[in-house]
Design goal:
five-stranded antiparallel β-sheet; 30 strands; 27 helices; Arc Repressor Mutant, subunit A; five-stranded mixed β-sheet; TOPRIM_dom; alpha/beta; Rossmann fold; Toprim domain-containing protein; coiled coil; DUF3987; single chain
């Protein structure tokens, strides 16, 4: 497949994309910009397959080069023929008259009918056919006509389809001979600019015919004329920044401001245009003396993770994983604590007060945040190893029970068949005989697989899993924001409500769905959640969540174990066997909690009027631990009522009422504690609270400092090429990009980038409200 290149017209075929016939991948690229890349099927390749894939890539690229070369050759042939058939351009050509410029010997014209006859198609731009007398502009590459540009009477332009454009130019007249000593050469974007500049100064002028081509043509001119004075004439918008880049790369001069040369010629005359061009010598010094940009404010700092916050029995295992993997300890710690919470589930709760029946179920929602490549997924997989062993054991148990069930089912079938024969015999002798006892063949109960974890399921299916597994389970998603966005949709309102309810761990839920009936009732929905995402995706989601709408219901605030650590320090190669003793000790903790002996740990349980157990068994805080918790909660409640927190942070911290007691219970049980939850476990939980608060403030910093976040997003768009080097505020917010859709926030961010030295602001008079153009300062990357 062929398509226009980055720096070419819509008639170009510089871009290419080809998929391999066997579906293993393909190539893409753009000859005009040098962009090239590959893709391959989402499956690992061995060494031999990689060699074969590389050979396919090389062969496909060579074929693409041959195709574009043939296409260019054919276009050059057509261009030469048409150029010879065209007539010298007349001074009365409407476009030249409008631009107040004179034709040169390097311009010709042709009527559309003749152009169509020679080309086989009418020159057009998109769906719009060029009309009237067509100016014919020869585009030269290496001194030979390679393509043509057509300009109609109204100024509509297009290029010859398939023609080479990269590095191509049009010149107002013959170029000088020699090395350029004592010569001045002018290089602009378009034909009118070049004509006005040449008429104003008497210097030879060239047109690169697109701003993206300025740098390539400037490089050619500098190579051919090393001693010439080279002035690059930028145009407002994209052209100004490209002109600066071309001037800097070719040791030339660029106009920093002043607008379009032809516009200046038309409005104020050739003298004004000449005066501006001669000022170009001042611009080079200005561009090199601009101040170094000031770094933008960073995100709020976070506390590093202290391994002493973990249960003693798990600390060595987590440390071993972190050392061997080289990942932040935060990722593994959050994964381990969330997995422990899911194993405990509804087996046991904690009552944070001394006498009330307020009960906290210790299911947790964990969320890790980091850039690609910081080992988020491997860290979580390692943290879930102990839980996955329990999952495997449950599958083995289910397989064994299923085999026994099949035997019992076969036996029940034989008994039913025997009973049927006996009943038939009895009824032949006595049609009124009571045979109900013979037909009452007991069927074996169908086994249910005990589930501890799920990865991808619908809310209704998850509800069915919870009905079969009342202790609750873990929902693990490698990319959590994708799940949250799915729940934002209007048609997922019921599912979203289900997840909100399941965070509590002890609330009933009923799915009333057509086709399912009214029988999908869960006595107490209990879900632990674990996953990760990238900083940009989380920041975008949080900002949308707190602005109202479907996402503004506290779902994101339920992720109490939300961590966004700084990147790990310098890399250190660690190649040693795992600490098996630490691993076995950690796995034993999970196994013990999976078969938790409630009587042995001293759990209490309410009773109903008839003296039967009722509700979830529980522990309370020990007296000294309760004093700590009360002191912490008094401070929390006072902070929540002061009104100086952002509402989103206030909602997040309010959910620590559940988080801290849950963490204390988990740590207490993991370290083999019995009876009331200890003071040590409570201190560790409070340490978690301080640590997690700093990470929450970082995560919600996207809304506390919107202009910083938006400013960084603008720089990222510029560096990716999504934004040109010169642009308006409207060019940013109208795209609807993440974190850049609010025009007021975009305006504040642009002002910040100007103040910090990343952008140069130009106010352009338009006869009405002045237009504001922002120019990116080369080398000012964040």
């Amino acid at each position: 497949m062929r398509f226009p290149g980055v720096h070419t017209s819509d008639q170009s075929v510089a871009g290419y994309c080809k998929e391999f016939e066997d579906g293993t991948g393909g190539i893409f690229g753009d000859f005009s910009s040098g962009l090239k890349g590959t893709w391959q099927a989402n499956q690992p390749l061995n060494e031999a397959e990689r060699r074969v894939f590389k050979q396919k890539v090389e062969a496909a690229r060579e074929q693409a080069r041959k195709e574009i070369k043939a296409c260019h050759a054919q276009a050059a042939k057509k261009a030469t023929i048409l150029w010879k058939q065209a007539m010298p351009a007349g001074a009365d050509h409407p476009y030249l008259v409008k631009k107040k410029v004179k034709p040169t010997a390097t311009l010709r014209e042709i009527n559309p009918a003749d152009a169509k006859a020679l080309l086989g198609f009418p020159p057009k731009r998109g769906d719009q056919v060029l009309i009237g007398r067509l100016l014919v502009v020869p585009v030269k590459v290496s001194g030979q006509i390679a393509s043509l540009e057509f300009i109609d009477e109204n100024g509509l332009k297009t290029a010859l389809a398939g023609g080479a454009r990269a590095g191509g130019y049009w010149a107002t007249g013959p170029l000088p001979k020699g090395d350029g000593a004592d010569e001045t050469l002018l290089l602009g974007e378009g034909v009118a600019t070049a004509l006005s500049a040449s008429e104003a100064t008497g210097y030879p002028a060239l047109a690169a015919l697109s701003c993206g081509n300025l740098r390539a043509v400037a490089a050619q001119l500098r190579s051919q004329y090393p001693k010439a004075r080279l002035i690059i004439l930028g145009e407002p918008g994209n052209g100004q920044s490209h002109a600066e880049e071309a001037a800097q790369s070719a040791d030339g001069l660029a106009l920093w401001e002043g607008g379009d040369i032809n516009d200046l010629h038309v409005d104020q005359g050739l003298d004004a245009a000449r005066e501006l061009i001669e000022k170009a010598g001042l611009c080079k010094a200005e561009t090199t003396s601009r101040r170094t940009p000031i770094p933008l404010p960073e995100l709020p700092p976070v506390e590093p993770f202290d391994l002493r916050l973990l249960p003693d029995a798990l600390r060595a295992w987590v440390m071993d994983i972190v050392e061997r993997m080289g990942c932040p300890p935060d990722f593994v710690a959050v994964g381990v604590m969330t997995a422990l919470a899911s194993v405990i589930g509804r087996k046991l709760g904690i009552r944070p007060q001394a006498q009330t029946d307020w009960t906290v179920i210790c299911n947790l929602w964990g969320f890790i945040v980091g850039r690609p490549g910081v080992l988020k997924s491997p860290a979580l997989e390692a943290a879930l190893a102990a839980l996955n062993r329990l999952v495997a054991q449950a599958m083995e148990d289910f397989t064994r029970v299923m085999e026994e069930y099949k035997k019992l089912q076969a036996l029940a079938k034989l008994r039913a068949e025997a009973a049927e024969k006996a009943v038939k015999k009895i009824l032949r002798d006595d049609p009124h005989a009571d045979v109900s006892a013979l037909l009452a063949v007991e069927e074996p109960d169908v086994p249910t697989l005990r589930r501890l974890k799920t990865n991808d399921t619908t809310p209704a299916s998850l509800g069915e899993l919870l009905r079969q597994n009342p202790n609750g389970l873990l929902v693990y998603r490698d990319e959590m924001v994708s799940l949250l966005r799915g729940l934002d949709r209007e048609d997922q309102a019921e599912g979203r409500g289900f997840f909100l309810t399941a965070w509590n761990g002890d609330s009933p839920y009923t799915f009333d769905r057509i086709g399912r009936g009214l029988n999908l009732h869960i006595e107490a929905a209990c879900i632990s959640m674990l996953g990760g995402t990238q900083p940009g995706r989380l920041a975008e989601y949080i900002r949308h969540a707190v602005k109202g709408g479907a996402a503004d219901d506290g779902l994101i605030q339920r992720f109490g174990l939300l961590v966004w650590p700084d990147p790990a320090g310098s890399w250190k190669e660690v190649d040693r066997p795992p600490n098996i003793m630490a691993k076995n000790e950690a796995f034993a903790v999970f196994a013990n909690l999976d078969r938790l002996d409630l009587e042995a740990i001293g759990a209490e349980q309410d009773k109903d009027l008839e003296g039967n157990p009722e509700g979830v068994p529980y522990l309370r805080f020990a007296p000294d631990a309760l004093a700590l918790f009360r002191e912490w909660r008094n401070e929390l409640e006072a902070r929540l009522r002061k009104g100086d927190l952002h509402p989103a942070l206030e909602s997040h911290f309010a959910k620590y009422r559940k988080l801290i007691p849950a963490l204390a219970l988990i740590i207490h049980l993991a370290d083999g504690g019995t009876g009331p939850v200890s003071r040590v476990a409570t201190l560790q939980a409070l340490g978690w609270g301080d640590y997690l608060e700093s990470h929450a403030r970082r995560a919600y910093g996207a809304i506390a400092q919107p202009e910083v976040t938006a400013a960084k997003a603008i720089l990222a768009r510029i560096n990716k090429g999504d934004l040109p080097q010169s642009f308006s505020s409207r060019d940013v917010w109208r795209q609807g990009w993440s974190m850049l859709s609010d025009r007021h926030e975009v305006a504040s961010a642009l002002d910040m980038l100007v103040d910090y030295g990343y952008l140069h602001l130009e106010r352009k008079e338009t006869g009405g409200r002045p237009a504001t153009i922002y120019h990116f300062i080369a080398g000012a990357e964040e």
